Amino acid sequence: MIFREDGKIRDIIRRLSACGELKRQDFFLLMGDISPEEEQTLFQAARACSAERFGRKIYLRGLIEISNICKNNCYYCGIRRGNKEAERYRMSREEILACCCNGYRLGFRTFVLQGGEDPLQDDPWVEDTVAAIRERYPGCAVTLSLGEKSRESYKRFRRAGADRYLLRHETADPRHYRQLHPPEMSLENRMRCLRDLKELGYQTGTGMMIGSPGQTLETLWEDLEFIRRLRPEMIGIGPYLVHHGTPFADQKNGSLTWTLRLLSVLRLLYPDVLLPATTALSTLHPEGRKLGILAGANVVMPNLGMPGQREKYELYDHKLCAGQEAAEGRKELENMMGQIGYTLSESRGDFQEHSPRCRKEE
Ligand code: SAH
What we know:
By secondary structure, the chain is an alpha/beta fold. The chain has helices at about 10-20, 25-30, 35-55, 95-105, 125-135, 150-160, 175-180, 185-200, 215-230, 255-270, 280-285, 290-295, 330-340, and strands at about 55-60, 60-65, 110-115, 140-145, 165, 205-210, 235-240, 300, 345. A six-stranded parallel beta sheet has the order 2-3-4-5-6-7. S-adenosyl-L-homocysteine binds near residues 167 and 240.
C-alpha cells in the first residue's frame, strides 16, 4: 500500500483544471490506485470543463467505412492484410454519396471517410470523391481517415475540399511502436504524416488505443508529450480490443478505467479539443458512450455505412454498429443523451480555439 497524503489527488485535479498543469509523477498517481470519490472528482472536473466550453452539446459525425482492404499488417487490427478470414469490400463513390445523402437527411453535417490503405482507392479517386461530396453538400465538413499518404496526396485531398484528417499516432514510443507494427512500417513516417497534415491546414486528429499490448504508463506519458508538441485539434482514444484473427488474439482488452481517466485528463489539458466517445468504448461497456461523455468527451461518430457491409469493417471482435452506434439510431442516441442532460448539435462542429489557458510551455 503506497502512503499518500490526504488531498494529494484532489490537489492534482485542481491544478490540472485551473491551468492544465500535469507533472509526470502526478499523471502516474491519477492513473493508479485512487478512490472512487477521487475518480468521480476527476470526471466531474472534466465534464464541467466541456460544459463550460461546449454547453452540453455533443457534435455528431457520420462515419463511413469506405473499404476494409488494407496493404498494411498492423498486429492489432482485424482488417490487416494477413487476416485471410476477413470478408473484404470496397465502396464505390455512388455508394458513399448515397450514405452522405442519407446522413444529410438524418442531420449529419460532417462525413468521415475512413478505410484501410486500399491501393485502388487512389489519389484521383479520393480527390474526386471529396470534391463530389463538397459539391453536393457545401455546408458539410469532410474528414478523411485513410492512413499514411505522401505530403503531395494530402495536399491534393485538401485542395479538393477535405477539412479534417484523423491519423492516430498509436504510440509515441519507438520500442512500443515496433511491438505493434511490422518492420516495413515506421513511427517516423507516421509523425511526418501528422506534421504534414498540420502544415497543410487540416484540423488534425491523432490518438492511441488504450491498453494495447506493451503499453505502460510510461508510454502513455510519451503519448501525452507527443500530443503536447503536435497540438492536434482532435484526439481519438478508445480501448484496445482483441480481434481473434490477429497475432494478438491471446491478449487482453484495454481497460475502461484507464480510457475514461485519460479522456478526462485530455479534456482538462485541452479544453477546446474535439474528443470522441468512441465505438470501441461502447463495445467494451454497454454504457461506454455515456460514461465517455460524462468523463469529458464531446463528439460521437455513429456509423453511416451500408447495413450488411459495415459489420465487415471489423477492427476488433464484436464491434457495435447498430442501435445508437448507427446513424439510423439517432433518436435512440438522442434519448440516451437526454438522460444525462446533453443534446446533439447540428452544426459542423469545427475546432475553435477559445480557452484562456495559463498553460506554461516548457
Ligand atoms: N487506415 C486508417 C484507419 C485505421 S482504423 C489509419 O491507419 O489511420 C482507425 C483506428 O482504429 C486505428 O487508428 C486504431 O487506433 C484503431 N484500431 C485498430 N485496431 C483496433 C483494435 N483491435 N482495437 C481498438 N482499436 C483499434
